[in-house]
Specification:
The complex is a heterodimer of chains A (301) and B (398). By secondary structure, chain A is an all-alpha fold. Chain A is built from 15 helices and 1 strand. Chain A has one domain. Helices cover 74% and strands 1% of the residues of chain A. In chain A, helix 9 packs parallel to helix 14 and helix 13 packs across helix 14. Chain B has 9 helices and 17 strands. In chain B, the strands form 4 sheets. Chain B has a 6-stranded mixed β-sheet with strand order 5-6-7-3-8-9, sandwiched between helices. In chain B, helix 3 packs across helix 4, helix 3 crosses helix 5 and helix 4 crosses helix 5.
């Protein structure tokens, strides 16, 4: 044995034994998981890049496609709902209104939908290397945020063109709403991606639920139209209990300058704050569930 | 010098094989779900301690739990009971192209893969050229890996894995894909690793490779450790098991189609004897004689035929083949039973186990009856050389 070998053995002898794979334990496990994920942030960055690069690889227009979907939706809603059904008459700056809601919704939709499939999609990696598996749903969050950023730039350009650029204190709603979407989206993505490994039907169920919930938030219709029907009833509380609804309303408070005279649910800021609090708790619970479920990933995939 | 890097304690792993996966099936079978489950113990009460700097070969028949054990060490699969403790940086080369994304280029994948194995971007930058050079696929490094051949995949994956400075390297039967120069390159790198005191755990079906590289071999069988020790001893156990399985197969085959086997001419008895008359599974010294006796029986008159006799390694690599024709002897037509012998007066083989294979052929070369392992013998030679062939040598300095 030469010196390098002895050095290595000596260095190894100093290291403590650790157990292979993730640590269990409800509270201790959380700290460990967080530390592991933070330790892998460089990998997370690369995975986000991969996600973005690989998605539109080999297509001629590349990134432009990530904009096509919301723009197409905008066109449909603007023409069909706005002009034909006359929603644009009641909602000022209808195009900006719809695009604001769509931007918020697309972010949530993408995190949950693609996040749900992320573990199964990366089965090749999961079966061969040990990593904190949370990085896969999290990388989806990262790439969704990137696409969101592009859409946001377009939205802001539109407000500039319409001479309705949002200014002042209204911007406070934006970070709160964004936080709500990211926290809830991540929580669902974590939980559903893990469950999806055991029950592949989940990804189809999620698709349908997302379709339904799209209409449960005031994205293509205004809050006024809803509140006319359910004001003061238990239904109203139920409608406003949806964190995504609150986030969409928050987005509109920031970016929909023309809607300043329109009614808003009371205490939107407080509601958003509460939603963030509950969301963080939910995120933690979902992460624990994920940690519990992940031990059998490799053999179920 | 006995720092354990891996300690496996009473490890068991159970797989539950479910036969349904969709929601509908689960709901329909909810009450009877136990009927649709099957338990399968991939590992059973495995205890192992692996020391720093050792090279351990995991061998065993297919489905014996080798890969499962390796994956448990890598933390990819969680044990049902028991624990795996380890220390140091671990790099795993499991199956093909671990962690390559088919749509990304080789370059992007190198960074991704290195990051997965725990290397920072700056470190990868410094190693990048070395990695590409080792893999020998410079021309294709900016091509998407989905266009790579399986050999190129493995080259790149191995190149990354050996550059991440692992303390423990897990290798699962991937080297077989590369071509010979690359395999040699990998094995050289493994030798360097051994010198550097890294621990290597190798799953391989190349028993000769295990014997050559490992200082310890663990034989797994049905999820249990069947043997653990010096490679020669462990491999002996494994080969004996393979032989048993083969005999059982033959017996089943014979039972399934007795007419076909019996209808033709065939060997009815083959034995090997040493000079001392020892038979069964004789042990002979290098340079001694060996006599192979064959009894052949034919129900119909057999004309223009020949007997082929060969010596092979236990894995079936032929080392020596001859026929009565090559020896200048022609055989008379045969009806009934008759004995033939082949005497090899001087066995020039190195230490090890050998198998005798015999074939009855018609004049056109077609096979009438083939016995791949008709008998076995062992050779004991002095320790002046290794390998299957024994040659006397003289080493001098001038």
């Amino acid at each position: 044995m030469d010196t390098t070998a002895e050095d290595r053995a000596a260095a190894l002898a100093l290291e403590p034994m650790r157990s292979a794979g993730p640590t269990s334990g409800f509270f201790r496990g959380t700290a460990q998981s967080v530390r592991d994920i933070v330790g892998q942030r460089e990998l997370l960055h690369l995975l986000v890049l991969r996600e973005l690069k690989a998605r539109y690889k080999d297509s001629v227009f590349g990134f432009a496609w990530s904009l096509m979907r919301p723009l197409a939706l905008l066109l449909i809603y603007f023409v069909a709902l706005g002009q034909f059904l006359g929603a644009a008459k009641q909602i000022p700056s209808f195009a900006i209104f719809v695009y604001t809601g769509l931007t918020a919704w697309t972010l949530f939709n993408e995190i949950v939908l693609i996040g749900t499939g992320s573990i199964v999609m990366n089965s090749g990696l999961i079966k061969k290397v040990y990593l904190p598996r949370e990085v896969f749903p999290l990388s989806v969050v990262g790439s969704a945020l990137f696409n969101f950023g592009i859409q946001l730039v377009i939205l802001l350009l539109a407000t500039v063109i319409a001479r309705q650029f949002p200014l002042g204190a209204r911007w406070w709603y934006f970070p709160l709403s964004l936080l709500v979407i990211v926290v809830y989206g991540t929580a669902f993505a974590l939980l559903l991606s893990a469950v999806n490994v055991y029950l592949r039907d989940v990804q189809y169920i999620v698709e349908i639920f997302l379709m339904v919930f799209f209409w449960a938030s005031p994205i293509v219709y205004s809050w006024q139209l809803v509140s006319d029907h359910i004001e003061g009833s238990a239904l109203e509380s139920l409608y406003l209990a949806n964190p995504v609804t609150l986030a969409v309303l928050g987005f509109q408070q920031t970016f929909w300058v023309a809607g300043d005279g329109q009614p808003v649910p009371s205490d939107l800021g407080t509601r958003l704050g509460v939603a963030v609090g509950i969301g963080v708790l939910l995120l933690w619970l979902c992460q624990r569930a994920f940690a519990r479920l992940q031990s059998n990933f490799a053999q179920e995939l | 010098m006995s720092t354990p890097v891996i300690r496996i304690d009473d490890l068991s792993k159970r797989f539950v094989i479910r036969k349904e996966k969709s929601l509908k099936e689960r709901v329909l079978n909810f009450g009877r779900s136990n009927l649709h489950k099957e338990d399968f113990w991939a590992l059973r009460n495995v205890d192992l301690e692996i020391e720093a700097g050792s090279t351990v070969g995991l061998v065993g028949p297919n489905g014996s739990g080798k890969s499962t054990l390796l994956k448990t060490i890598g933390g990819i699969i969680q044990p049902t009971t028991g624990s795996v403790q380890l220390r140091g940086r671990l790099a795993a080369l499991l199956e093909l192209g671990a962690g390559f994304h088919p749509d990304l280029t080789g370059r992007e994948n190198v960074y991704l893969n290195a990051s997965i194995l725990g290397l920072s971007r700056q470190t990868t930058d410094t190693f990048f050229d070395a990695i590409v050079e080792f893999s020998g696929i410079e021309r294709f490094i900016d091509t998407q890996v989905k266009f790579y051949s399986s050999g190129m995949y493995v080259r790149l994956a191995f190149a990354v894995a050996v550059h991440v400075d692992p303390d423990v390297l897990l290798v699962d039967e991937v080297l077989a894909v590369g071509d010979e120069p690359f395999q040699r390159k990998c094995l050289e790198r493994i030798r360097t690793f051994q010198k550097e005191g890294r621990t290597i755990i190798l799953v391989s079906h190349g028993l000769d490779q295990v014997a050559e590289f490992c200082d310890r071999a663990v034989v797994l069988e049905g999820g249990r450790v069947a043997a653990d020790g010096a490679p020669e001893d462990a491999l002996m156990v494994l080969r004996a098991d393979f032989e048993e399985a083969r005999q059982a197969d033959l017996a089943r085959l014979a039972a399934a189609s007795p007419d076909e086997v019996a209808a033709q001419a065939r060997f009815t008895g083959i034995s090997v004897r040493s000079r001392d008359g020892e038979s069964g599974r004789p042990v002979v010294d290098e340079g001694d004689s060996v006599v192979i006796t064959m009894a052949v029986h034919s129900d119909v008159e057999l004309r223009d035929w020949l007997i082929e006799v060969g010596i092979a390694t236990p894995l079936g690599n032929p080392l020596y083949t001859t026929t009565n024709e090559m020896m200048g002897v022609s055989l008379e037509p045969l009806l009934g039973t008759r004995q033939y012998t082949l005497t090899l007066p001087r066995v020039a083989l190195g230490s090890g186990d050998y198998a005798v294979r015999t074939t009855l052929r018609a004049a056109d070369g077609s096979e009438i009856h083939y016995v791949p392992v008709a008998a076995q013998f062992s050779v004991r030679a002095d320790s002046t050389s290794r390998g299957h062939v024994y040659m006397e040598g003289l080493f001098e300095s001038h």
